[in-house]
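Lab notebook: predicted structure, single chain.

Context: the supervisor wants predicted structures on file for every construct in the current expression panel, including those that have not yet been purified. This is the next one on the list. No modifications to the sequence; it matches the entry in the shared construct table.
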Amino acid sequence: MTPVDTLQLADWRRQVADLYARIRETAPSDPAAAWNDWRTTRERLFREHAQSPVPPEGRAAFRAHHWPYDPSLRLEAVIEMDTPTEPPTVAASLGGLAMLLPISTGGAESLERIGHVRVRFPAGERELGVYWMSGYAGGLFLPFRDATNGTETYGAGRYLLDAAKSADLGAGRAPGSVVLDFNFAFQPSCAFDPEWACPLAPPENRLDIRVEAGERID
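Prediction complete. Output recorded below exactly as produced.
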């Protein structure tokens, strides 16, 4: 990356961090308004910003696509922490709670599975693993796959939380809980351009139901 690239990337991250700060402030009283801010701001950044994951030739015509806001898919869930007697269920485990997630461009990303959340979907309760990025600064990470992948959404899944990149909806009211609003689920950068490297959702986070909320491809 050139010095200009690094400054542009810093600006991209600053604007995304500011966006999620607004979301955390607005969403408790008006989640639909917060979602509209998120949706329109991301679309503008994807069209106009030099660090957009959309290839330059496609930016001017880019338009984001989303399902309508569904208030039933905004919830709070307590992160039930893992213990040494509850190892991760994914085959990529390195032992204990450390694990590797495959990267879209090849290789793997080191993470720590810190626990799981129980999500009460209309179709019934499901569990999703919650991870901590092991790289510099770290951050909560919650990727998932569902039955819309490969048709309406990116085949390798979407992200709900990626705090290393400021995508964090905030803490819930109960101790140890987080806000999970699937209306804010988004495609990883590699969905727009395969040149980007993105950690993929592990097998334990593959849902057997459709999650018709958040960002979609068409």
